[in-house]
Amino acid sequence: MTLTDWTLALGGLGLLLLGMQLLTDGLKAAAGTHLQSFLERSTQTRLRAAFAGFTVTALVQASGAVVVALLGFTNAGMLKLKQAAWVVFGSNVGTTMTAWIVALIGLKFNVGMIAWPLIGLGMLLQLVRRSSPSGSVGLAIAGFGVLFVGLDTLRDAFEQLVTIMPVEQFSVSGPLSILLAVFAGVLLTALMQSSSAALAIVLTASVSGAFTPLAGAAVVIGANIGTTLTALLASIGATAHAKRLSAVHVLMNAVTAVVALILLVPMWWVAEILSGGEQVTNISTGLAIFHTLFNVLGLVLMWFLDERIFRRVESWYRLPPLRSGEPRFLDKTVLEVPSMGLNAIQQELNRVLRQYVIRLRMLLKDEGALKETEEDIATGELLAHIQTYLTKLSAKQLHGDEALLLAELHTSHARLRDLRDIVEKLRAATPTQIDASLNHQLREQLLELLNGADMKDRPEANWASLVSSIRATRNLLRHTWLNRIAANELEPTEGAALMQLASMWERSAEIITALKT
């Protein structure tokens, strides 16, 4: 084998990875917020969630990218753990489309007839419609073509490689060699950072005779285990939500791998029969069938084991205490898709607002606030985290509604910082001063505005009416205090302090109204 053959293999691998990257990036950009709305509509039952995962992964051709996106959706509160987990289970089945594309198209036809037109048409569409979703679709089409060129180049390289390799070393002769083949699949996926790319390499090598059937099947099992590495890496330093989903993904693939290894021989026997026999030309189809059987097996196992797994990972990774000031929805995964990041920031801002509402109600001696189970969180620390993520999102290219929402979130963050200053100053006042700054009417108006049960569905006109009433009452109190100061019934310094506190009550009502409307 010459140096040219080695460079051909390296170039084919590079084209394969480049094609998958272009395909993934193009479809993710084209989907935009539609992916979020699709998943929200399609995850109401286990079967629907699994089908959604299958569909998205079959289109994007990158289960790792889908899982990372799901980590972000889960963090942002858009999907619950059970919903996201079943999308992941379906996503595993969706990866089988890569194997079928390779086995039935990439290794059976003259790919030049398919690939080159796809690359040309895709890039033309991308150049002409660069700033529109159709331009991103063009990039995905071009990526699909590059993927086929990479497969064809790899196949040519493996035909040369197999002539100098002792093929018997890639055969299965016992449990140890099976485990070594599984490890080879894990390692290959770890290096490629893509189980789809690893599968494409295994199927291409199998056609050239580099693998015996059972060895190839064991490598396929390893590749499925290796695909969890992307989720594990993405969950490092992430929130408990991301770690839970990542752990579910690992447990699902590990359990399925153990069962598949036990059933390795009968599963391959079924795959061999369905693929048409023992001929070398049928091995790639047989491995594609085996890969499908493996992932369908995983789906069936999860149907019976999912609740146990969910309870286990929830006990492993608990949400941070509310008082810690640590984000519950924000981590690096939500930045993968801007809409996820925006939603996660909104969730964190809502946490801060709820905290200030409770603190104000406690200052007003509301009995309901004293019974609240929500702990006192470090809002200053949380606001600092939110500011960091707002800055990171501002560096991304946002358009239309997303750009407007980001501007609104910046405004909400600034208002909450103002509200924090007001609440801290009110809490610094003595109970006597707080009582003196309120009359019965103002206290009742403020409590009505801060009533959590009414906040969610209160019409905008009612908010405005309440603020207007609070402002009018505060003006009456101000006139009363001014008259008392003029009549020497109230010390000027004390009167000024009371008027300042009353203004803070009014300003807090205005800020909360602005945030809620």
TrEMBL record:
InterPro entries: Na/Pi_transpt
Principal location listed in the UniProt entry: membrane
Keyword Nucleus: no
GO biological process: sodium-dependent phosphate transport
Protein name (record): Phosphate:Na+ symporter
Stretches that traverse the bilayer: 50-73, 85-105, 111-128, 135-151, 171-190, 197-215, 221-238, 250-271, 283-305
Cellular compartment(s): Cell membrane
A Pfam short name: Na_Pi_cotrans
Keyword rRNA processing: no
GO CC terms in record: plasma membrane
Lineage: Bacteria, Pseudomonadati, Pseudomonadota, Gammaproteobacteria, Alteromonadales
Species assigned in the record: Pseudidiomarina maritima
Keywords of this entry: Cell membrane, Membrane, Transmembrane, Transmembrane helix
Membrane topology: Multi-pass membrane protein
A molecular function GO annotation: sodium:phosphate symporter activity
Residue ranges of coiled coil: none
